[in-house]
Design goal:
heterodimer; A: mainly alpha; 2 domains; 8 helices; 0% strand; disordered C terminus; B: 117 residues; mainly alpha; 4 helices; elongated
Chain lengths: 192, 117
């Protein structure tokens, strides 16, 4: 039984209808409008002069590099980026180049790249395909959504959930082993 | 040819930019922007800032270049003795390869775009 069905049964028709109306008719549109207005307000407060735009862009580029690398080369690279953008070479190629090189500075070896991939992807088997179907099975919920295990025959569901959790944890531990520890200065030497 | 520790080939995809940077620094110390413009002038290649600093950081780690006192926000770099030796060896090998290629092109009557009189 889904959450909505449970609430409907608990509250009864009129109360459920009233609360639905308040949520969809007031809270949801007011909350969305508030977020949009706040975003517009923040945008209006921004200094939109070309110099300020360039500074924000350079700050964004530099934020893609690891902190120790920025400490060593950030000031020089900032000046070079400023000169490059003022020289008319600040197009999409510059953005792509900084994206590529900052990733290379962050993950300088193949092991680190594999670690980064594992860190990025481990959550998919672990949470939505492992832990969530596990909780659904334990609570007896009928929701299937896009959880693979819930579409399989009953005898296969637990093994698939276990395999997904195992795959996710393996990837997570692999990432933990391969990725540099950022609290350690030596492990994150920008010049390595 | 196998890569030695000081061979620029050990820098992987940064070997090309590293050769250009070392060649530029062979003419005297330069900071990032001066390197970019000098390389564009003599090689017709514009190194993007990210690539330039990726290569500079690796060259500095290998001891092939060193930074000098900052000039405002710009930090000039210069070639070290080891950098000069490595560049000389690298360019000599490149020149030998170029010479062989050019000689073979010149000797071959089927070479495209070359008229042998």
């Amino acid at each position: 039984m889904s959450l909505v069905e449970r609430l409907y049964q608990r509250w009864g028709f009129w109360r459920f209808a009233l609360l639905s109306l308040v949520f969809w008719g007031v809270l949801w549109p007011v909350g969305s409008a508030w977020l949009v207005v706040a975003a517009i307000g923040r945008y209006r407060q921004l200094d939109k002069s070309p110099a300020a735009r360039t500074s924000r862009r350079i700050d964004r580029y530099l934020s893609w590099y690891p902190a120790p690398w920025r400490e060593r080369y950030g000031e020089e690279l900032e000046q070079l980026l400023r000169d490059t953008i003022h020289g008319g070479h600040g197009g999409i190629r510059l953005t792509l180049n900084i994206a590529r090189e900052s990733a290379a500075a962050r993950y300088p070896s193949t092991g680190s790249t594999v670690g980064a991939l594992c860190w990025s992807l481990c959550w998919i088997p672990l949470i939505p395909q492992g832990v969530v179907p596990l909780v659904l099975k334990l609570t007896g919920a009928s929701t299937r959504s896009w959880f693979l295990a819930t579409y399989l025959p009953a005898p296969l569901q637990w093994p698939v959930i276990a395999a997904m959790v195992a795959a996710g944890l393996t990837m997570l531990f692999t990432a933990a082993r391969l990725l540099p520890v950022h609290s350690s200065r030596t492990a994150c030497d920008p010049t390595q | 040819m196998a890569s030695t520790q000081n061979d620029l080939g050990a820098l992987g995809r940064y070997a090309g930019p590293a050769t250009l940077i070392l060649s530029s620094l062979a003419g005297g110390p330069k900071h990032g922007y001066a390197l970019t413009t000098d390389i564009e002038e003599f090689a017709g290649v514009r190194l993007q800032p990210g690539t330039l600093y990726g290569a500079l950081s690796r060259l500095e780690t290998q001891g092939l270049i060193e930074s000098l006192e900052a000039d405002g926000r710009r930090l000039p770099y210069r070639l070290t003795r080891s950098g000069a030796t490595t560049l000389r060896a690298h360019l000599t090998v490149q020149a030998q390869r170029a010479e062989v290629g050019l000689r073979r092109l010149g000797a071959s009557p089927t070479a495209p775009g070359l008229a042998i009189s």
